[in-house]
């Protein structure tokens, strides 16, 4: 085993990152037990991926030309997302999605949440972070493919940032209470923040592809599945039409994920 790790620096870095992410998940779980609020994991999610990137850069013996830009891009993405989610959820208590998970797993959810929520999120964040590994490890010269990946990542970051800002400004106005946000980017897709996140991780994969990491396609595929079918669009809209009838009309005229011109 030691020989395998010594001959495969990327494998070594990946395993160390996994241990680091599980440790962060454990510490976050302890905080959630005190607060009785497991939804803090949403704020920690992007920090887990940033931690993995830092571990890759620290453990790998050689740093290529992609290391600094990739670390910078990941840091900007992670800090913005963690900061926004923390600000949005401050003082709101446990998110209703996690309240439902808690109700389904009582008694002793306090202990079950360690693996059902926190360790699971750590493993998912680790898999998503794998597209960063070959980009940080590679010493191949930068290419046009890198430029394309960086451009797509930055476009996604801009889309999700603008979408979040537009929604926050909309909710801040008392007169919009109970109304559906269908302006700005939200006119063209019901989830511009999720679409932006989709672009971010396909952008990082393109950078990994330029570094020879074709096998990391598992990262954007997993993120796409999470956004579309698991914790993103599907979960958020599961019963929203029943809770907010006006949203049903919004669904009819607006694309769910990929932007498109509104239907009349």
Describe the structure.
The chain has 264 residues and is mainly alpha-helical. It has one domain. It is built from 13 helices and no strands. It has helices at residues 2-7, 9-35, 41-59, 67-89, 96-104, 109-129, 132-137, 144-172, 192-210, 218-230, 233-236, 240-243, 246-253. The model is unreliable at 1-7 (pLDDT under 50).
Mean pLDDT: 90
Number of domains: 1
Supply the number of helical segments. Answer: 13
Number of strands: 0
Rounded to the nearest angstrom, the radius of gyration is: 20 Å
Low-confidence stretches: 1-7
- Using the alpha-carbon principal axes, give the shape: globular
**Kindly, what is the distance between the CA atoms of the first and last residues, rounded to a whole number of angstroms?**
62 Å
Topology as H/E string? HHHHHHHHHHHHH
Structural class: mainly alpha
Major β-sheet annotation: none
Query: What portion of the residues fall into strands of 2 or more residues?
Result: under 5%
What is the helical fraction, as a range of percent? Answer: over 70%
State the gist of this model.
With 264 residues, the protein is an all-alpha fold. The protein has one domain (2-92, 100-253). It is 71% helix and 0% strand.
List the helices and strands and how they pair.
Elements: H1 2-7, H2 9-35, H3 41-59, H4 67-89, H5 96-104, H6 109-129, H7 132-137, H8 144-172, H9 192-210, H10 218-230, H11 233-236, H12 240-243, H13 246-253
Helix pairs in contact: 2-3, 2-6, 3-4, 3-6, 4-8, 6-10, 8-9, 9-10
């Amino acid at each position: 085993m030691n020989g395998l790790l010594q001959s495969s620096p990327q494998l070594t870095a990946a395993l160390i990152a996994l241990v680091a992410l599980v440790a962060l998940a454990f510490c976050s779980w302890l905080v959630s037990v005190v607060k009785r609020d497991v939804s803090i994991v949403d704020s920690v999610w992007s920090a887990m991926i940033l931690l993995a990137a830092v571990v890759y850069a620290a453990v790998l013996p050689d740093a290529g030309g992609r290391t600094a830009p990739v670390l910078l891009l990941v840091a900007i993405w992670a800090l913005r997302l963690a900061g926004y989610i923390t600000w949005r959820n401050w003082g709101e208590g446990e998110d209703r999605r996690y309240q439902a998970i808690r109700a389904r797993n009582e008694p002793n959810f306090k202990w079950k949440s360690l693996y059902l929520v926190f360790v699971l999120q750590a493993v998912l964040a680790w898999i998503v972070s794998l597209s960063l590994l070959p980009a940080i490890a590679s010493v191949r010269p930068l290419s046009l493919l890198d430029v394309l990946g960086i451009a797509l990542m930055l476009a996604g970051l801009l889309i999700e940032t603008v979408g979040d800002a537009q929604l926050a400004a909309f909710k801040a106005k008392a007169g919009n209470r109970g109304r559906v946000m269908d302006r700005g980017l939200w006119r063209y897709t019901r989830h511009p923040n999720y679409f932006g996140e989709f672009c971010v991780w396909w952008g990082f994969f393109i950078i990994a592809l330029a570094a020879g990491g074709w096998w990391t396609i598992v990262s954007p595929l997993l993120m796409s599945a999470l956004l579309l079918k698991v914790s993103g669009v599907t979960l958020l809209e599961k019963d929203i039409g029943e809770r907010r009838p006006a949203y049903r009309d919004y669904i009819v005229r607006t694309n769910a994920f990929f932007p498109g011109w509104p239907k009349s």
